Amino acid sequence: MTDISVLAQELGEELHKRGWKVTAAESCTGGGIAAAITSIAGASDWFEGSVVSYANWVKRELLSVSGDDLEELGAVSEEVVRQMASGVLGLVDANVAVAVSGIAGPDGGTEDKPVGTVWIAVAHSEGQEPVTIDAECCHFDGDRAAVQEQTVAEALRRMLALVREHPEK
């Protein structure tokens, strides 16, 4: 099993123990998080689905991301991934969400946001409890595939850490 497969398996086990479900809003990974999760047998018990929001209009229309924030801050920003995570939680019945938006390359980087810059947000909601969201900017090295793979692995790690912070049923 690869690191990603191990992380996805562990995430599923931890979610199952709690009776929780997970969802994702993906941009730069293009469905890679969903693919990693659905490679695990039984994922349908704890995975609700993923929105691949590559285009900004999809972020706006499906995930309720502010058009002003997209225009002023860009899709690769803390505010946007926070809104993506909250937006995907609003679409499905899940307890945990992850959102990723970044520059996988080989083009598209700038001085402020070089290739390999990725924002990752994890969100948690349980029942009537308000949504809590943590977001962080990561910088990954390598070509496009390497940046995407590292993003998927880090997203899974962050979801796993968030789930493990909460007691089992």
From TrEMBL:
InterPro entries for this protein: CinA-like_C, CinA_C
Stored Pfam families: CinA
Signal sequence segment: none
The CinA C-terminal domain, residue ranges: 7-160
Protein name, as recorded: Nicotinamide-nucleotide amidase
Protein's organism: Microbulbifer yueqingensis
